[in-house]
Each structure stands twice: as structure tokens, then as C-alpha cells.
Amino acid sequence: MRSPLGLDRPGVQVRTLIRIRWAALSGQLVTLLVVGLGLGFPIPWWPALAAVGATAFLNLALHFLYRAGDRLDGANAFWNLAFDLLQISVLLFLTGGLANPFALWLMVPVTISATLLSARATALLVLFALGLLTVLWQRALPLPWHPGQGLELPDTYRLGIFLAIALGMLFLSAYAWAISAEARRRQAALVATQAALERESRLGALGALAAAAAHELGGPLGTMTLIARDLEDALGRDPAYGPDVRLLAQEVRRARDILEGIASRAEAEDPFPEVPLPALLREVVEPFEPTRVPVELVVPWEPRGGPRVRRSPELLHGLGNFLSNALRHAQRRVTIEGGETPEELWVAIADDGPGFAPDLLPRLGEPFLGPSFSRSGSTGLGIFIATTLLERTGARILFANRPEGGARVEVVWRRATIEAGLRQRQKEGA
After folding, report:
1. What is the model's pLDDT at position 425?
2. Using N-to-C axis directions, what is the helix angle for 277-285 and 313-329, rounded to 10°?
3. Closest CA to 193 of 415, 404, 384
4. What would the pLDDT profile of 364-378 be if each residue is shown by its tens digit?
5. Are 325 and 336 spatial neighbours (Cβ–Cβ below 8 Å)?
6. How far, in Å, are 74, 224, 225, 243, 248 from residue 231 at the CA level?
7. Cβ burial 245-268 (10 Å sphere, 16+ → b, else e)
């Protein structure tokens, strides 16, 4: 069951939290020693050392209760950060409250929470921090200062400090959460992309395995064929064994034909063959036929002509994703165009649907993986995967809306990147 505050999210590694705490405790202790002993300012030593010791005790407890590689779940991370806020607030209360320059440290646990926990858990921690900040604004022991002198800041100045820290806390937590959320979405989308590539690789490996199995079984089946033929010659006319012997010879020949067919198909399915670009585009379209709306292929080359390109799973899967997206939104027709310039090859997929939302055009290709940002209810993961796969082939992707209505995706390659054999021909020409 999911926590309503998102506290079931994986938190922080214990080793990381312990190291951060020891660094913070060292800084607090050094500051107390410098202010109290070095500058001679009066410090409430026992309460201050008790606050530092409580955190040290918690750190030692974490060290002995968990292994260094363990992770604290969201709930434990939340309560640890809340404890850190409380401990810092106690030290500030003992040493001047908001008049203490180190009051800025209240923003640290909140910022860490924004990178680790959910938005709801971070909001709860921010409210807790704002409550502690309000208490420090209204109530705190005097700031340690020279004996016989007191440093009393004006109320307006203390209000300014309160507002500065509160607004900084809100801004930093919101900014850190937005950045970390984007990183989490991108990581999840990259995992999905990697899974798609691994699936294509497994299919290619399966073909190679089939070819190897066919060749390995060819020898034993050849021997079985010879034995079956000898048995058929010797017992083919025997009324008792003849039908079985003839069936055995027939099935052995059939098994040999099947393995030869598997071997020839697997060998023909080279993961990186060279094919004409129009043939590759027809291969992209073929899995979607018949479709709800017709797909029109427009290329300037002859049926068997066109530049030859290196066929790859990334190329087929990426173009297939864009075509699937166009078919899902089209009203009457989808067009796939191909073309070339002296320097580039390009493929454009266009539909006559509603087109891309104008506010989404600059963000297309990013992984949303959250609440839907489009009118169709999609999250943008498919477009991100297609973009990532095609960029691996050296392509650049251009998204636009057509003047007459509908969306257009243009995929452009430099010829030297995608065209098969071009570099070799350039070397020979040189």
C-alpha cells in the first residue's frame, strides 16, 4: 500500500547520510569552539553540546544498525531530515536565533529532501521548517557577544532575515525538486529505451542461434537420412514395416528441409545489411498494414533505386514509433516522404491530425513520464524513445506543425553518417 505522503519512495544510502552528518557535526563543533573559546563569547555549553551529542548518537546508531550499502526508505529518510531540522533549530535557539548568521543552515535538510522524497513529503518538511523558523524569529536566547555588551537587531531587520530564509527555503526546495524530478523521468525513459534496444538485440541473437542450431543439426540429420534411405531400400516393400520405414524417411527429409529453411532465413536477417532507403521505408510501413488510414510513400527514386543505407534496429524502431504516433492522430492520411541533397538524406512523416500543441513543441523529445501533457493523454515516452534511438544513428529530429494542419516530424542525416559505403567511395575517389 502506497503512503499518502509518498514516504515509500527509496530514500538515501546510509553511508551518504552518515558522512554528511559527520561533516555537519564537525562544522558545528568547530564553530562552537571558535566562538566560545577563540573569541571568548559566552556559550551555553551543556545544552549546545547535548544537541551535538544527540546527533552523534543517532549517527552511531545508524552505523551499527545498518550496513553501509543499505538504503533508508522514504519514511526513515523523512524522519532523519526532520530530526536534523530540529537539532539545527535547537542550536540556533541557544545562540541567537535568526540573529545568528548560521540560520541559513535551516535550508539544507529541506533542499536534501527535495532531491530524495516526493513533493508531498517535501512540502510537509518545508512546513515543519517554516514553523521552526517562526519560533526562532519570535523566541531565542541572546546572540553570544562580548561580555557586558548586547547586540540587539531591529525588529524590521529580523523580519527581513525571516522572509529571506523562508523565501529561499521555498525557492530552493521547489527548484531542487523540479531538477531531480526531471532527472528521475529521464532515467526511467532511458531504461525503457535500453529495454527496447535489448529486445531488438535478442531478436537478432535468436536468428544467429537458429542458424547455428540448423548447421549443428545438419550433420546428425544427414546421417539419419542415409540410414532411413537404406532402411527404405531394404524394407520399403515389407508389408509389416514398409509404411513405417517410408514415413520415417519422409519425416527425416522434412526435418532437414525445415532446418535448411531456418538457416537460410537466419543468415539472410543480418542485423546491419545495406538496403535502399525506399525499401527500408516500406519495411517500416509493412507491420502497420492494413491501417485505419492509408499510408502514402513519396520518394523521388526508382522502385529499386535510391541511396543505400545501413539498416539497424534503432533505425527501424525509431521510424516505426514516429509512424505509429502519426497513425494514432491522423484523420484521413499519413505521408512518408524521403529525399536527398548533396550533403544530407531526410525522411519526413506527416499526418493530417490536430498537430502538436504549440506549448509542447520546444519540449518534444523529452521524457515526461508523469501526468499527461498532451491533448491525446500520452506522456511523450514514445517520442522520447524514438528520438533517442534515431539520434544514435546520427540523426537530428525536427518537429513542426504543417500550415494546412497536422504534425510533421523530419529526420535528417548527414550522408557520411547513414549512407552505406559512402566513406569507402570517398576514399577511393580521393
Report:
1. 46
2. 50
3. 384
4. 777 654 444 444 545
5. no
6. 73, 10, 10, 11, 9
7. bbebbeebeeebeebeebbeebee
CA–CA gap between residue 345 and residue 333 (Å, rounded) = 23
pTM, 2 dp: 0.47
Place 411 in a pLDDT band, splitting at 50, 70 and 90: very high
- Classify each residue of 80-91 as buried b or exposed e, where b means 16 or more C-beta atoms within 10 Å of its C-beta: bbbebbbbbbbb
CA–chain centroid gap for 318, Å, is 17
Question: What is the rounded CA–CA span in Å between residue 397 and residue 364?
Answer: 10
Q: Could you tell me the maximum CA-CA distance found in the chain, to the nearest angstrom?
A: 126
User: What is the average pLDDT across 56-64?
Assistant: 86
Q: Are 8 and 124 in contact (CB under 8 A)?
A: no
Grid coordinates representing 360 are 509542447
How many Å apart are CA 304 and CA 279, to the nearest integer? 8
Q: How far is CA 374 from CA 117, 178, 388, in A?
A: 26, 19, 20
Q: Do residues 42 and 151 touch, judged by C-beta distance below 8 A?
A: no
* pLDDT value of residue 358: 83
Residue type, 30: V
Burial of 318 (0-12, 13-18, 19+ CB in 10 A): buried
